[in-house]
Amino acid sequence: MFKSKKIVAAIACLLIAGNAVAARISSSSLDSVPSLSVVPKPVSLTPGDGHFLFSPTTTITVNDERLKPVAELFADFFVKPSGIDLPVSLGDASAPIQIILVPAAQFGSDKSEAYRLQVTADRVHIVAPSEKGAFYALQTLRQLLPPQVESTTPVNYVRWDVPAVTVEDEPRFPYRGMHLDVARSFMPAGFVKRYIDLLAFHKLNYFHWHLTDDQGWRIPIDAYPLLTEKSAWRDKTVVGHTLDRNTEYDNNPTGGFYTKAEIRDIVAYAAQRQITVIPEIDIPGHGSTIIAAYPEFGCEQQAAAADTFVQPNFGIFPAVLCPTEKTFQMLDTVFTEVAALFPGKYIHVGGDEVLKTQWEQSSFANALMKDKGLKNYHELQSYFVARVGETLARLNRKMIGWNEILDGGVADDATIMSWQGIKGGIAAANLGHDAIMTPFGYTYFDFFQSDSVDEPMAIHGMTTLAKAYSYDPMPEELAGTDKAHHILGAQGQLWTEYQTQPRKVEYMVLPRMSALAEVTWTAQGNKDWADYAARLPDLFARYDAMGVVASRSVYTPTINAERLGRGEKANYRITLNAETARTTIRYTTDGSQPNQQSSIYKKPFKVNGGTVLRARAQDNVSGEFYPESRLRLLSHKAVGAEVEILTEFNASDDPSPAEQLTDGISHQDQIYQPSDWVIFYGDSADMVVDLGEPTSVQSVSFTFDAGKHRQLYPPSSVEIFVSSDNSQWNSIATLQESHLLDARDKVRVEFPAENARYVKIVAGNRFTYKSNETGEHRKVPLHIDELVIE
């Protein structure tokens, strides 16, 4: 009777038509997919002969009650796309799928997450020392099934089979995490679960939930109801990037918080998927939300302020909790309630980006320092964090903090997240602290994924998929030493200043989350970019079946231009690169968008100045085009000329800023990256261009605003000088502020032809902006691109 019902259900599923998910996964997207494609890459994966076929008679057996929830979770997942129910029983030796819990000694005491998976034509056999290992084995089995298995609705006409294979596997690091900031942009509870599902798919085991910050408080505290009644909401949000400019707001109220029931449900949901949730309550800085609700927890100036509010801006703000006994009593209560919701061993206390100005101005803080013998405000921060550590110790929890909590000393059992590079992790390990590596250059997934003009808004920086994949969490200085065990693993970060919707979050973390998974799971010697890239098509097919938005930025070509010659006769050797071999690069040199008929890149080629080069990668299987890259190459008399910069500017290297000013490459229509610009901080930008010989010149122009994701300011004045000897100067043209205020992105100064070897440009910079962090007026940095002389 039972089997008959299963057969009827299976036939009914095969008759369902018009499935939306099946339509999303075109047949071409599944072509040429490796039959054995698993991410993260296992320790070993050996193909066998034949396939195991799931059918309405397939059942699962376990040898231990503790394994039943793991097996049932897989069965619940599998029935949705396949219509095949997989009953789970205890001790049925004849079941075709067997999951066996064995003594830990069979794998080793430190290998609780290991597993062995063997698939033959007639059975699936899983052996593991724990529920975790069994869960990860089933995730591997999941990835060996057809990609359509990821659909949450029935899929028609799919043969649900798995290739015969033997997998031996275990993770490299015990900590494999992903972070999600819900303070800047609140994410619904349903999406948080979806995010946890993505972690589980990638065998990640820690979810770092950033619940509080200056822009929102997302967790209810019964003893302090105003934290959610007032501080879970803000009246407006700044539009676009806030750095170096006056701000505009959307005037749309936004916010939200999770009920305690929702939090308990999410924690339990994660636990089912072998994921520990780590809550972050960020103290003592990033405290606007606490002080907005309860000003008495700020120092004197804050407690008396009438304008303390939940921040509508992004950045680092002065709001800092005052180290009073009533503040520590409040935090004791807060963390007690937090610990009741989160049973995991870790609680994150933030501790980053603490502006100490208000402590410096506080008579109480200064008296406390004197009384406690604290030498500086870093030690005061250490004292503050240590007091919170006493609460966590009482609650039987371990503290995690960002690497700034090392400043001034830290509690012996604190774990450090090293985000400002890797030095914090190294220092922590050498002091005997555990460390989790989170360096922003590799693990911050709110950075751009490519320099394509098609990329959505991001905070800054560039972390390509290849760069994320290249990271090794084990610092060279510690590898093989007795301190190496303190490096627990690594974590990816997703801050949500500009990722305001779940779909945007998905785009930013996928597929970089998969790179992080392989970085933390797979042995360094077993990693290989080409092999990983070959597995990406299968991974993308699975993302598509899930209905998530995954970036294809990995297929964006990069354009490299080598300048040949100088001046107006300069040309450029162009090299186009793709990070994977799956695509063909098509390009144009006339400014038009590449299409099916455009030239195919085969080898480096030359172009003249005045060329707008555009390139797109086309999928070799589906024919789909991926995000575009552009490069604008210039022709003018100063290309390759030497430049002397006379005033304060950014000191970036390779190439030097002076070389960038005449390299013949314009960045006016590209995504803003600070390294592409020479940035001046003083009252003027003074530059001298040496044309090499007397030359007739009649105009000078330069770009000051990229116009893509950043609003940059024009100079307040421009004056052009010429000289034959770089000593005696003649002023030949001036533009005043009234002419420059309407400039859109470029300054051009024309004048009667002059014969000169040296041209000096003096760009005034008197503009200021009101800092959204401090309210003070600051000098606007002046950005300058190519100095074009004609």
Automatic annotation (TrEMBL):
Protein known as: beta-N-acetylhexosaminidase
Family matches, as Pfam families: CHB_HEX_C_1, F5_F8_type_C, Glyco_hydro_20, Glyco_hydro_20b
Single annotated GO MF: beta-N-acetylhexosaminidase activity
Family per similarity comment: Belongs to the glycosyl hydrolase 20 family.
EC number(s) stated in the UniProt entry for this protein: 3.2.1.52
Organism domain of life: Bacteria
The reaction(s) this protein catalyses: Hydrolysis of terminal non-reducing N-acetyl-D-hexosamine residues in N-acetyl-beta-D-hexosaminides
First-level EC class: hydrolase
Gene Ontology cellular component annotations, sorted alphabetically: membrane
Catalytic residues in the record: 353
Extent of the signal sequence: 1-22
Domain (F5/8 type C) ranges: 634-761
GO terms under biological process: carbohydrate metabolic process; glycosaminoglycan metabolic process
Record key words, sorted: Glycosidase, Hydrolase, Signal
Gene3D superfamilies: Chitobiase/beta-hexosaminidase domain 2-like (3.30.379.10), Galactose-binding domain-like (2.60.120.260), Glycosidases (3.20.20.80)
